[in-house]
Known about the structure:
Blueprint: H1 3-37, H2 47-57, H3 67-90
Amino acid sequence: MSDTNIEALRRELDDQRKAYRVAADAVDRFRDVVCEVLGHDEENPGDDVLVAQLRQHFGKTGPEPMGWRNRLVGYEAIRDQINAEARDRRGL
């Protein structure tokens, strides 16, 4: 792989890391707002508690839909596999 390609990949990785940080900050802020609205003044009780309270507030009953969580777990597994393969290629 040429130096130009490596540099382009590094820039892309930097951009992805920056985007991840922005998304993580947005998620944290969203959780803070949801906590405040639901009356949790000091500490985030966790996503499961927040989801349960929101579902109760909007009159949802039964088990929580898990499709989005299942997709997230799948995406994280794919990411981990890609990262492991990249480490193997670099000999780390």
